[in-house]
Amino acid sequence: MKIKLYILLLLCTNALFAQKVTTSIDTTQNKIGAQFNLTLKAEVDTATQVTFPAAKNFGFLEVIRSYQIDTIKNGGRYELIKKYGLTQFDSGKYTIPSLKVLFGKNVLFSDSLSVTVQNVAVDTLKQKMYEIKPIAKAESSSSWIWKWILGFLLIVGIAALIYFLMKKFQKKKMEAVVYKSPIEKATNLLNNLEQRELWQKGAVKEYYSELTDIARNYIEEAIEIPAMESTTSELIEALRKASMKKKMKLSPEILENLERVLKQADLVKFAKSKPLDFEIAEDKKKIEKTILTLDNAIPEVVEDEGDILNEAQRQKLIKQKLRKKKMTRIILSIVAVIVLLFGTAVFFIATKGFAYLQDNILGHPTKELAEGEWVTSEYGDPGIRIETPKVLQRVDVKKTLPKEAFAIIKDMQTFSYGSLMSNFSVSISTLQYKKETQIDLKTTVEAVVQIFESQGAKNIIGDQGEFTTPEGISGVKGYGTFTILNPIDKKSYEMYYETIVFAQDGGLQQINIVQKQGDKYAKEISERVLNSVELKRDNK
Prior knowledge:
Elements: E1 2-3, H1 5-9, E2 20-25, E3 29-31, E4 36-45, E5 50-51, E6 57-58, E7 61-66, E8 70-74, E9 77-87, E10 92-96, E11 100-103, E12 106-109, E13 113-118, H2 143-174, H3 182-196, H4 204-222, H5 232-245, H6 252-270, H7 277-297, H8 311-352, H9 354-362, H10 365-371, E14 375-379, E15 384-388, E16 393-395, E17 409-417, E18 424-433, E19 438-439, H11 441-454, E20 458-468, E21 474-486, E22 491-504, E23 507-516, H12 520-531, E24 534-535
Parallel strand pairs: 1-19, 3-13
Antiparallel strand pairs: 2-4, 4-9, 5-11, 6-7, 7-9, 8-9, 10-13, 11-12, 14-15, 15-24, 16-17, 17-18, 18-23, 20-21, 21-22, 22-23
Helix pairs in contact: 2-8, 3-4, 3-7, 4-6, 4-7, 5-6, 6-7, 8-9, 10-12
């Protein structure tokens, strides 16, 4: 008995008993561009929900109108009538393919019908003639370059804004309070430090760090010793030399107290030491006494009238300016790197195109597949030996087969890589029947197309032809295009499919390849895969 192949290949379909679909059209001869009507009638019980197809195209025919469903009640059953207005703007003979109608969880397919579209005869003697319209300017294919340029200008603008804000921040920092003398600055900073109560809140390390920085900064500005960069021992030795050079009267106790506090701070910062509360208070008093004693010991210098800042303060401002210049250079370097990167990208796009940029810099998924290490394996029974860029993974489809299928199917195996939404995907299926079965390969190809549609494919357009392996085994090849919506980016992509089926040794062998249209690497992969096909015969 001849088996309708789509019943075996639609893996998620259940057996149908109580439903029926009839198909009809109002004319088989139609004029080009004129509407003709397709009618689908479904007979169901009152509890079954029916879903009719809602595509924009049925094969090569365009759906220009979808009518409301009419319902006729007949006892305990319903007759649902769904009409579609179809048309075609090219003459020729067309086929309305089998359409999927859902009866709850079950699926039935309508009959395929043929219709002829004829040209409309035009009388050029009576018809008014018009001048030929001028050539319309097509949309520039380089419009995307402007998007890159605008994006580049936006990033440059953001970088300039960051530079401006940082410059303004540096300016405000430079405009901070300038103290009249180092002792005034140190005294104010010590008072502010005490008011913040850092060590009382547990921030002992931060407290000692700021306390010793105040002392070191005072010594650097007032006595002109590089105290901030010196170690504790180096600083004490430098103070001794400076006191002798400047004839400062300093007792050994003052230098010993300063050295003791600095070493205590080193232990807190680097050895995680934690002094007691009274020790912290004593260290603060020692620093205050040291600073006051040093200030009193410094010989007075008569300054020129109008000189507000001493030499140490001027040196401090010089250092601030140097830091500002350093920050400016860093910002300008970052901006230069950004400009260089985007300039390089724009150059590559303008000279070699975006494809070159994607292939050699950004990376191309199908290029990596094409140039990677390929695998040659045999899949299924009857076996299919094929070369693929990745090993195909086994897919367990037996659980989705209807129980009725097990009465005629002996074994079914499926292997695949990728999905309909991948840049490239390939799947292999083999089927063995328990009894000798006549297989219609053209119907099989139509069933595969229906599977694509059930998985989300829209606007399917296809054709069929012959395919012969290098061993001389003949089969049928289906090929065409469809669109599919990617649920992640919500965009529709144009895909190209090829499906090849063979019938031998009481079984069916099938290869499906889907690739994104316009992807040259996916096309190269498909050609290499198909050229490697070798069919094995079942010797059992």
